[in-house]
Amino acid sequence: MFTVFQNNQQIDFESAFGDVELAKYYVKEHLNFNTFAASLLSKKNLSEKQIAWVHYLATEHLNESLFPQKEEESGEYKTLVEKMYSAVKSKSRKFQVRLPGFILSTVTKGINEGSLYIYENQQYKGKITSKGILKGSVSEDTLNLLEDAKENLLQLAKIYGHQTGNCSLCGRTLTDSLSVQMGIGPVCAKRLS
């Protein structure tokens, strides 16, 4: 029996593999695209937590291969996820949009790669999966703004700029008179349009 923690939730599971070497071999053969898996395999001596994660990744992938579930349908925030990732210059760099009351951030590594993390008051509150499904507990205000962000992400970024005097994307102080008037810098505005 193994235990891993994902997004502050404890997951207990039975490994489908007899030992860690078999699990590592399976991960190497089937999950070489996953940066989190690759980082685990690159270590010479794994901690107990890391061994549990190797078993978890291998077992989950094996179970999905043997017992495929119905394809998860796209959620209501799929267009927002696509919009955020289309604005990213480099897939390996994190991209954040500060909005009134919360921050949306792309995920560039690990098991949630391709998702968006949601932070309220600098604290993680949930995520939007790569399929556009909201998971976690966010405030009612954030829910309302997320609904608006699906269609009006650039407008919300501009509102943030007007309220704070800082660019929603890069965080820099807006000093140019046109940027102050627009609520966002011209380079960052192009990334969201």
Describe what this molecule looks like in 3D:
The protein is about 45% helix and about 15% strand. It has about 190 residues and is an alpha+beta fold. It has 2 domains: about 1-65, no CATH class; about 80-190, no CATH class. A hairpin with a 2-residue loop joins strand 3 and strand 4 (about 100-105). Helix 1 (about 20-30) packs across helix 3. The chain is elongated and about 65 Å long. It starts with a strand and ends with a helix. The mean pLDDT is about 85.
Radius of gyration from the alpha-carbon trace, in angstroms? 20 Å
- The shape, in one word, is elongated
How many angstroms does the end-to-end distance come to? 49 Å
Tell me the series of helices and strands, N- to C-terminal: EEHHHHEEEEEHHH
The strand order across the widest sheet is 3-4-5-6-7
Based on the model shown, name its key terms.
elongated; alpha+beta; 17% strand; single chain; 2 domains
What is this structure, in a nutshell?
A hairpin with a 2-residue loop joins strand 5 (116-120) and strand 6 (123-128). The chain has 7 helices and 7 strands.
Provide the fold topology.
Elements lengths: L1 E5 L2 E5 L6 H11 L4 H7 L6 H19 L11 H9 L9 E4 L2 E5 L9 E5 L2 E6 L5 E3 L3 H25 L12 H6 L3 H7 L1
Antiparallel strand pairs: 1-2, 3-4, 4-5, 5-6, 6-7
Helix pairs in contact: 1-3
